[in-house]
Amino acid sequence: MNSMNKFIWLPRFKRDYKKLTPRSQERINQAFLQMEKNLKHPSLVVKKVKGTKNIWEARASKSLRITFNLKGKTIILRTVGEHDILNRP
């Protein structure tokens, strides 16, 4: 049996998520289902955020991004929102 990834929502992620439209939240939820099963799924286009040591990004749609850290099977959700979140510290 393949063990699933677990999520930890940081406070900022929760705040950002609540600000999203219902449609965007739906897209993020779909991405979570993929991330839980397989972080390497092609639709997520997971890659390291440029200039960082251990911050990763995943796509939920053409413009929606999720940033996170990885600790074993735990995905620590940092921020979520439009593509420009990648330019924030």
Explain what the structure shows.
- This protein is of the alpha+beta class.
- The protein has a single domain (6-81), classed as RelE-like (YaeB-like fold, 2-Layer Sandwich), CATH 3.30.2310.
- The protein is 28% helix and 30% strand.
- The protein contains 2 helices and 5 strands; from the N terminus they run βααββββ.
- A 5-stranded mixed beta sheet has the order 1-5-4-3-2.
- A hairpin with a 4-residue loop joins strand 3 (56-59) and strand 4.
- The longest helix has 16 residues, at 22-37.
- The N and C termini lie far apart (38 Å).
Q: What are the salient characteristics of this protein?
A:
alpha+beta; YaeB-like fold; 89 residues; 30% strand; 5 strands
Task: Identify low-pLDDT runs.
Answer: none
What is the arithmetic mean of pLDDT?
Answer: 91
Identify the CATH homologous superfamily.
RelE-like
Strand content: 25-35%
Annotated CATH topology: YaeB-like fold
Main sheet summary? 5 strands, mixed
Overall SS class: alpha+beta
Neighbour order of strands in the largest sheet: 1-5-4-3-2
Helix content: 25-40%
